[in-house]
Amino acid sequence: MGLMKLGIAGVGVLGPGLDGWPRACAVLAGGEPYHKTPFQPVPPQLLPANERRRANLSTRLALGVAAEACRHAGCDPQITAAVFASATGDTEIAHQLLESLADPAPTVSPTRFHNSVHNAAAGYFSIATSSHAASTSIAAGDASFASGLLLAASQVTCEERPVLLVSYDLPFPAPLGDTRPIAAPFACALVLVPPGSGRPLKLVFCPLDARRTTLEDPQLEALRLGVPAARSLPLLRALAQPDGVPTRISLPAGSGRVELEVDGAG
Amino acid sequence: MPITPLAIHAYTLVSALGLGTAATLRALIDGHSGLRPNDFGPAAGIDTFIGRIDGVEAQPLPEEFAPWECRNHRLAELTLAQDGFYAAVTAARDRFGPDRVALLVGTSTSGMLSGELAYRARYGTGQLPAEFSYPHSQELAALSQYLQLRLGLAGPAWTVSTACSSSAKVFADAHRLISAGVCDAAVVGGVDSLCLTTLYGFSSLELVSRRPCRPWDIGRDGISIGEAAGFALLTRYEGGSGLALLGYGESSDAYHMSTPHPEGIGARLAMEQALAQAAVGPEAVDYINLHGTATRANDRSEDRAVTTLFGSGVAASSTKGWTGHTLGAAGITEAVVSWLCIEHDLMPGSLNTEQLDPELHCHLLLENERRPVARVLSNSFGFGGSNCALLFGRPEWD
Lengths: 266, 398
Description:
By secondary structure, chain A is α+β, with helices and mostly antiparallel strands. Helix content of chain A is 36%, strand content 22%.
């Protein structure tokens, strides 16, 4: 009941030692050792020059992976519906707003305020691509990626159109970082398409059990556990393998789990 | 592409108008606004009117949920107790199974006030108070996680946060999950409570009125911020003439982060899609509940969008003068108002609006009208250019 079949037509990744899908692919396929090297997300080329310089880290991450996945899939972002899933949103702005409101004479920067909405990255993406297509922004804590995947898959299934999924998270500055530790900035994007093209993906929501897919490399496993968006790594690893061998993945999603099969038959 | 409707089984609302749907309807019929001069302690310095709910502070969470304490969850708790909503969800959980009921709620600020007060305490002491837990209060997912635990559900659960369209867009997500067979029912809604970020933030953008807000008025000068929580229980439509979601439309402005598209292109696209999903034309809509925030730019943009699609024939109003702009809860607030209109033959006027702006051309109601309402279109638009339109009615009514 509720089994969804679709395809994955494009992937984008940005994370420590995993900057860009070709690099991530080489590491996750098992050919190259993983080094957790810091990375500096480049200003998003999608944005006009004046917006590009001011773009926050969250926007750089989200737009960076979105652009890579759309390029990879050969899809037109202007007409592609999008789901943005993030546990943290923009953590720098969250901290700065709280600091400025704690002052005895509270003030808020208007730009910072409008950039504090959870859908800021989605808003900049639609402006950058002149897209009037539907877009949403959700949060589900550590289950944000699995939830975004479930939502995007249901949208592909119901509307028979490509949907771009973007998942990103970044660490909080102190002191919020002590109460909500996030290990590193990480983002990934997938272009999901109706079945028949892309890498075959089957997906179903089930009651939670003890199953979950982990990673052998301790540093990659620490990244997976340390960043909500990096819960996508087992799926990215499956996509990094050459086509053909069916792979099953269990992603916990709150009180349930999302069960995936990549490259399965039928 | 036409869709199968979603049936609306149980619903409730708590706003400045009162606790539950009966109090809400009474205030609408009596023309009684919930707005009052700003008396919200931590932000009392701001000269404005607010839609504040009495009694939120006095509603502690059940003891076993104490770690989740925050104003937003107290407001959620107060709302679950109205209109038999908790019992309706329990019955749905028993009927379908906990993993077959989704929980999808919208908020713009979640338990932000807890973080703000924790940072204020830190300003003096250098440390966040020990009882402050970001994941249980301010984190956006805290709302959906708390409600899922509280209602004993185990289906898909997330928080939608797209500024002021948040709790309208949850209806679209519920429709997708139910249509794809992922679940059989969904609890949808939204909760947004007063906090410093929104009061000071909208003030910094000079979008807050010093008077009760006046949508479509020639002298309109900004919003009145309110708080609200509302929920509804949705299932697949199986016939009959009960209330239903007939269509929804979502779009992006692709224009500016805090200013709507001047011609309302995104708003029009969302309304067109909602009509197309219900396979009806503009003439099928009896009443439009406008987003109508009462800022100069918002009302102008929405007026362009509505008149382009509907002309000036369809009755429309904004109920922000009653409830204030409840931000992330605006979608569910106005969905509930729309259902009350359908069930009680009511079209509310735009409270506080005195002199219509001659540059705006919607058929704006200034007084309540009592006549049958078969279909209502409800608009919600947010920062970042996030638009959502919902069409409600009775599928087998004509």
